[in-house]
User: What shape does this take?
Amino acid sequence: QAELDRQAAIDKAKDAAMKALDIDENQAEAHSSLAFIKFRWDWDRAETEREFQTAIKMKPAYAPAHQWYSSYLVAVERFDEAIAEAKRTEELEPLSSTASSHLGWIYYLSGKNDLAIDQCKKILELDPSSFPARRYLGLAYEAKGMYAEAINEFQTGLKVSGSPLMLALLGHAYAASGKKTEALQVLNDLQQLQTQRYVSPYTVAAIYTGLGDQAHAFTWLDKAVEERDIWLMNLKVDPVFAKLRSNRKFSDLLARIRLRP
Assistant: This one.
């Protein structure tokens, strides 16, 4: 049911963007929304690029266009451009913790973990309840092998949010740090949660990757492809899946979601 609701919401968003453009094709907001859908849902890189460029040309000061465009650029390994767009977002919205934490996310996916950590710590000093900053800080710690720090951030985030995403991240940190029992417990908890809330198969695959169980990881990534899980677009650059990259199935997956050149 949750999956059907998600599909319906995305279809609705696409319709709304198309209708807005029928009325006025000079709406940067509608072009940005369409670009986001083309990228995350349709896996259409040429259209994504075109729609973002159009939106930014029409309204250079529209921050979400720069933010979403940076998400696209980082996914296709255009790291310097992605960081520049994320910095532009922050300049346009200096008081937004969303814009600031997004830059932390882009630093993390670009492999600049120290910059990500500094960025997220700055945000959490001002706003300890910032869910994204907590999440990206934990991930950057984990990428540096600082597992105790990562686990602490995810546990704190989970207490504040109760989010399945934060729970899955905690599960991966447990798995990657060798706490197998705790990781399996999280998988069990996520299974229970699935009956009430949408649980991203991509995040479940991450836990299995951390456990070194590639067979189950690929089963869940296949499920993510079937469901067009929006996190999939980070697959090529996501450090959490680094251990799978040498497997032939991984490059097949990238081809299926059109992330392979």
Observations:
- The radius of gyration is 18 Å.
- The longest helix spans residues 2-23.
- The chain has a mean pLDDT of 91.
- The chain has 14 helices and no strands.
